[in-house]
TrEMBL record:
Enzyme Commission designation: 3.1.3.25
Pfam family name, one: Inositol_P
Protein name: inositol-phosphate phosphatase
Subcellular location field: Membrane
Length: 344
């Protein structure tokens, strides 16, 4: 008798192969799925850790800023002019602070978008986060706060108030970090290198800052830029009257702090204001951290028309700004004259 054999038609071979693929899929689908889930989990960013790194970066940059100023090694140069014709200065302090702050943040969170006022080709891969979350953060913020890195934009200002820095008006100088989530500021850090004080906030979670007990709703004191003021004084007096006290100050970070309650050690070195107004173009690394600090206290920073500012990828805010806390922000905006920063 001839040996028996099994003959499969091409259709049978195809069915057999499909069945084999199906078996393999069922065997490995669970493994693949669990590994993908684990990968996605590893890619999450803990905002509490990002707050800790932001504080560390601002302080680290501040040390460079202070050292360069004390050694008088500024080497200042002009990198351009603003739309209003004011010089935009660059110093060694700006660059050294940028290198520390930018590289520390990128080395710790390489998948997160980080935008800095300065640009530099120096890459320092040795800079590493200390892995230390300060006790004051751990006490106020319980547990991890994880988000997808794609939803995060970080803005850093390595040296705010460079003009004043060159003039040795160091009380205005700050280093700043802001974390925006889906375009909304959620973490803000403003560090004062020459006093050592660091203001921070995690919106909806905690802050080491508070609003003051009272503000003038009129308002009676308005703070503005001393180097980019444009026609802001006439604008404010048209809105609130000739009796309005107007304080000129350097640095957007400083001006936001003037709206908040400062600790006794800092109070003597900072002006107080009811409102902060800016009517020309301004970059988002200047204002994002301050917006987070104000939002954490129920305050607001909007365009002159009362619109929310999107802190996604576009660096320039063209709508001017008005910042307040402890007052009716919408009522303030209604008093402001129509003004288009792009036409002035």
């Amino acid at each position: 008798m001839a040996p028996m054999g099994i003959r499969l038609s091409p259709l049978g071979v195809a069915v057999f192969c499909l069945l084999g693929v199906g078996v393999i899929y069922h065997l490995y689908a669970g493994v693949i799925s669990s590994r993908l889930a684990a990968f996605r989990q590893r890619r999450k960013v803990d905002l509490r850790e990002l707050l800790a790194v932001s504080i560390e970066a601002a302080v680290l940059g501040g040390k460079e800023v202070k050292k360069v100023r004390e050694e008088n090694g500024l080497n200042e140069k002009t990198k351009g002019k603003t739309k209003e014709g004011a010089k935009e200065l660059l110093t060694t302090g700006d660059l050294k602070s940028h290198r520390k702050m930018f590289n520390l943040l990128k080395n710790t969170f390489p998948e997160v978008k980080v935008y800095s006022e300065e640009h530099d080709d120096v890459v320092d891969q040795t800079l590493a986060w200390s892995r230390n979350i300060p006790e004051y953060v751990l006490e106020k913020i319980k547990g991890r706060k994880e988000v997808n890195p794609e939803s995060i934009t970080v803005w850093i200002d390595p040296l705010d108030a460079t003009q004043e820095y060159t003039e040795n008006l160091v009380k205005y100088v700050t280093t700043m970090v802001c974390v925006a989530l889906e375009g909304k500021p959620v973490i803000g850090v403003i560090h004062r290198p020459f006093t050592g004080f660091t203001a921070w906030a995690f919106v909806g979670q905690a802050s080491n800052m508070n609003s003051r007990s009272s503000y003038s709703a009129t308002p009676s004191k308005v703070i503005v830029s001393r180097s980019h003021s444009g026609q802001v004084k006439n604008y404010i007096r048209e809105a609130f009257g000739n009796g309005t006290a107007i304080t000129e100050a350097g640095g957007a970070g400083y001006k936001v702090l003037s709206l908040l309650e400062m600790p006794p050690s800092e109070a003597g070195s900072i002006d107080q204001a009811d409102l902060y107004v800016h009517i020309t173009f301004i970059k988002k690394w200047d204002i994002c951290a301050g917006a987070a600090l104000l939002n954490a206290q129920g305050g607001h920073m909007t365009t002159l028309k009362g619109e929310d500012i999107d802190y996604s990828e576009t660096a320039l805010n063209t709508g001017g700004l008005v910042a307040s806390v402890g007052v009716d922000h919408k009522a303030i905006v209604k008093k402001l004259p129509d003004y288009d920063p792009g036409k002035h």
